[in-house]
Structure formats: C-alpha cells, structure tokens
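U., I forgot to send this yesterday:
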Amino acid sequence: MDEPVVGEVFVPTVEEEGGNIIGLGVFSSEKIALNVLKDYFKHSWKGKIISANLARWQVDLIGEDALTLLAKWSCQVCPICDRPTFWIDLDNFSALCHGTACGAWMEDNIYETEVIDIGLPAIRWLHQARSIKQAMTEFKKKAAEMRAAGGDVDDEMVDYTMEDAKTRMERILRKEGSIGLGTALGDLPSEEE
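Result:
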C-alpha cells in the first residue's frame, strides 16, 4: 500500500516574552496554517505573546535548506483598544488589530509610496499619514475622541449598530465644528439597502 506523499508542511509558531516558542501545529496547507495563526492572534491579549512566524518545511531534506520563513509578525499594544492584539506584518508592512471589538488597521498606500493608510472599521474612519509615528498619533487622537464621546473602546462596540456609530461620529464632528457624517460620507448606501 502506497503512503501519501507530503513534500512540505507549514508550521505556525508564536513567541512569548521569556523566549518560549509555542508551536500551533503542523499543516499540509499554508492557508490552514495561516488561518490557525490568525485565529490565535485574536487571543493574544490573554498571554505575553511578542511575535509570530509562519514557516514552510521541506520534508526529507537535511539541514537549513529545509526551512523557509514565509512571514513574521510583531505583536504590539493597539493604539485604539489598548490591548496587545495589534499584529504588524514585518515583511509587507501592514498591521491589524485582531481584537473582537476593534479591527484598527494600517498599511502602505498602493498609489503613493510615502503615504500610510489607516482606519477603524467600527466607525468607518479612514485617514492618511506620512509616517508610522504620525499614523500612531492619529490613532491615539481618534481613540481619545471616541472615549470622550462615549466611554472606553471595548467589546461592547461589537454590539453597536451602524446607527450608533453614526450618531457617535456625528457628535464628534459637531464638537469639532465639522459637517455631519451623512454629508461627509456622501451617498453611501445604508445597511438596509
């Protein structure tokens, strides 16, 4: 009876503060390994995780050539929700908060190389910055505005409807003397459409 041929396996790992490496499994598919790792990112606030890797190992190959590091991430405290769930992709420069209530993100602009796009899906907020430092400052300003408008950024945000987010955002815009959210967003379709 022939055994199945496995040419390569994918191994996601995370590193704790003390240097302890935790393997999350061995998978025959890169997609499955990446999904397992990203699911783990959602729970990184429960421990002292500082980084993660996704590696491909060639089967039946001796030495260092058997290992290819496919991706590396660094775990940071999210500037919006203040939890260690903001994972920065060190190879492709992008970041995403995997916290259930947040989803803050950052990535290079695809049209202008000197611009960084940032956003917060929970309130449909988008912004552009010229440096990582400026991007983090804008995130922190937005978090402060949100806290001033209605309390902490936490898991309750998941339960808010778009109308709640729109109302909160309009309150912030009125405070700043800006136009209403409906006017600022133009003719975007509502959730009911």
